[in-house]
Amino acid sequence: MRKIISTLLLIINSATSFCQGDIPYLKELYIQEMHVDKNFSQKYRIQLSRLRAAYPLALKANNLIIEYEKDLHKLNKKRKKRKYTKHAHKSLKDEFNYNIKDLYRSEGTLLLKLIHRETGMSVYQIIKKYRGKLNASLYNSLGKLWQHNLDITYDKYGEDWITEIVIQDILSGKINFNFKTKKIDKQEYKNGMKIYNENLKKSRKKNRKKFKLFRR
Question: What are the structural domain ranges in the chain?
């Protein structure tokens, strides 16, 4: 459970000379919030593991959107812009479709937040920009069925403060991190899901045996 401890820093300036005499005064009272979490090390490791899966994808998405924005500024006619945004949306979807499907739910939620961190836009806003408000609303409704809010944002001073610490450690080189992304195709995704389901069945079978032994 996160605790927030307020630390007070009191700076008192000594008497200052004025023409009418010495007038002591209080310069300023600073209140600084400091985050403390007794499970910090564990949560740090968990977020690092999730970031290894999600962060490279968020950086890739940001680079693509920067390229799309540059190309859009070169176009003058609305018809050409609509055609290009349709193409951009399809490219983003094709690039990340199976990579996103291959993520765990917690990694998927983190990816949505990281995209906002890198681009300054939520996924909902990106879809709205490139495919229109109707499509964005539809995608957001479908996302919520899978417990994903496409309009979710990143808060480095709030609930994402541990994630931000990990990212800063990554960017400073304190952590060995692979920034490269490997595009997953349909067949690779199917093979991965097959292995995942087989391992899940084995795990459930093993747990059932333990439960039976416990009941005896």
Answer: 2-37, 40-185
Q: What are phi and psi of 33, to 5 degrees?
A: -90, 135
Q: How confident is the model at residue 172 (pLDDT cuts 50, 70, 90)?
A: very high
Residue 119 CB contacts under 8 Å (≥ 6 apart), including other chains: 61, 62, 65, 126
Q: Rg (Cα) of the chain, in Å, rounded?
A: 25
Residues paired with 35 in a beta bridge: 4
Q: Which two tokens stand for residue 58?
A: 């968020």
Burial code (b: 16+ CB inside 10 Å, e: under 16) for 159-177 equals: ebebbbbbbeebeeeeeeb
User: Which is it for strands 2-18 and 21-37: parallel, antiparallel or unpaired?
Assistant: antiparallel
Q: How far apart are CA 114 and CA 107, in angstroms?
A: 10
Indicate yes or no: pTM above 0.90: no
What are the backbone dihedrals phi and psi of residue 105, each rounded to the nearest 5 degrees, phi first? -60, -40
